[in-house]
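Example record

One chain of 433 residues, shown exactly as stored in the release files.
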Amino acid sequence: MEFEPLYTAYGFYENELQQNILSFWLPQCIDREYGGFLNCFSNDGTRLVSHDKYTWSQGRFVWCFSRLAVMDAPTFTSKQRAGFLELAKNGAAFLMQHCLMGEDDWRCVFLMERDGSPKEVEKGAPLDMSIYADCFVIGGLGMYAYASGDMAAYRFAKRLYESVVDRVERREFNTLPYPLSKQYRAHGIPMILSNTARELYRAAEKLAPADGAALLADLERYAADILDHFVDENNALHEVITEDNRFFPQILGRHINPGHTIEDVWFLLDAADLCRKPEWNERIYAIALRALENGWDEPYGGLIHLGDASGGQPAGDMTGVKDEPMTKQLAGWSDKLWWVHSEALYSTLLCGFRSGDERFFDWYRRIFDYTFHTFPNPDREVREWVQIRTRNGQPEEKVVALPVKDPYHIIRNLILILELLNRQLSMEKSAAK
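Predicted structure tokens for this chain:
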């Protein structure tokens, strides 16, 4: 991409972040009475339907506001950055006060009342429904500790991280709403752990350098697990394998999640850099291209939610896996989701700039056209994206994982795209001198 298109793209994404996304969330997401954030809005963004607070999203909001405060691009003033950090501080305090199961029980509750009291999702459901919620708390507090220098937030995140690692190693954890029998392993676990280790490593470099080596070793271990065990000979990344690291032919074992893979691509590239594994790069690029090819919906455009390792609709028999919740979610395979496309925008640009392979820029342009034709809310009073659409692009009032409207993927990828474009612009300017 040449200088002028880069400059135009930078302005476009800056406007998207400031005028369309943040203008929706601020100030209406801020709970000034109880702390934390409100995000149980209808998919179209017109109604706040609940004051419930999902720990998963609370951690993500803390990450977003912390990351905006230290964004490496000239998008925000110092006053705006200070405001973001104050929002993150309030969210971090809410989490550290309310998110744990008990005073010395380092597991996170999944759902809270508006005031932070633990709440059952349904009668008899475990309060610690998903270890992913714990990981988003770690990521949020880790980023806040990095941005603010708050050692107490770092120590909290580190202690929770140690609990997560211990539970995963013992295989004593929940992953609702999509639990998985212990005879299988899900890609999502090493994926989220690699990202969590990376976020905590960033904070440790600044606040606790002695912790850095162990966190970097964890990052390498989780990334290598994905590359060694979940990726087949055709570079398709399977979402589920057996406990002893084998592929299996049932529909659950054949299915892919293109968005997950494309998101993990930039996690893996980051890990390759930090762990000094340049030999991983070419394989990661091949994984990205395979996910894009297998996930693209040729009749309608866009990337499908779930597919088959050889492309198209999930396929394979149901023997032994019919009652697995992860199998049941395959019914929504053709949905078009906001987060998948925001991840694809960043990963295709990143792979293009890093590899120089024009195929990634071709994919970027195709995904850009589909994304900004499909997801931004046509109601200019709302502007934030309609997060879930049907296969042919119609809006759909539907829950995916959590009944919330969550800006995490959009904000994160807009930040990363702006930083990437800013670096490229700086390189172009330097080269022109």
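Notes: Residues 52 and 113 are 5 Å apart (CA to CA).
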